[in-house]
Amino acid sequence: MPTELKQVIIVRDDLKLTKGKMAAQVSHASVGAVLKTHKDDLKSWQDQGMKKVVLKVPNLDTLLKYMRKAQDAGLVVSLITDAGRTHLEPGTTTCLGIGPDKAEKIDRVTGDLKLIS
């Protein structure tokens, strides 16, 4: 059986994004990270159904801490900053895409976080 791959997107909970805004920001993070991923890993992830998990952190400082942890672990990251065309100030950092990569490698970085609800 092939190694399980997944992608994680971490969202700032303190911004209280609307469902639509959150969906757009999570999509930006997912696509941004995918565009940086090696094509062989991408193909394997696609073949497995492109598993994604959306998690939350309380604030920007925590989001940036997880970004550094992911980078230190050698994971692809995509930090998303909003353009400010709707209800956020321009330059507001909203979320972080990590992977796709080996699920166990990502879990070592993000395994303590809770699912977005």
- What overall geometry do the principal axes of the alpha carbons give? globular
Query: Helix amount, in percent?
Result: 25-40%
User: What class would the helix/strand composition place it in?
Assistant: alpha+beta
| Strand element count | 5
Please identify the top-level CATH class. Alpha Beta
Radius of gyration: 14 Å
How does CATH name the architecture? Answer: 3-Layer(aba) Sandwich
Oligomer: single chain
Q: What is the CATH T-level topology?
A: Bit1
Strand order of the largest sheet: 3-4-1-2-5
Largest sheet data: 5 strands, mixed
CATH superfamily heading: Bit1
Mean pLDDT: 96
Strand content: 25-35%
Helix and strand pattern: EHHEHEEHE
- The termini sit apart by 31 Å
Keywords:
117 residues, alpha+beta, Bit1, five-stranded mixed sheet, 4 helices, 39% helix, globular
General description of the model:
- By secondary structure, this protein is of the alpha+beta class.
- It has one domain: Bit1 (3-Layer(aba) Sandwich).
- It has helices at residues 19-34, 39-47, 60-72, 103-110, and strands at 5-12, 52-57, 77-81, 93-102, 114-115.
- The protein has a five-stranded mixed sheet with strand order 3-4-1-2-5, sandwiched between helices.
- The longest helix has 16 residues, at 19-34.
- The protein is globular, with a radius of gyration of 14 Å.
Would you kindly provide a brief summary of this structure?
The protein is an alpha+beta fold.
